[in-house]
Amino acid sequence: MEIGSASYNTDLLELLQQADNLVLTEAETGLIADGISYEVTGAHSKFHRVIWIREGDSTIFFGADDAPSFRK
Question: What is the pTM of this model?
Answer without folding.
Answer: 0.64
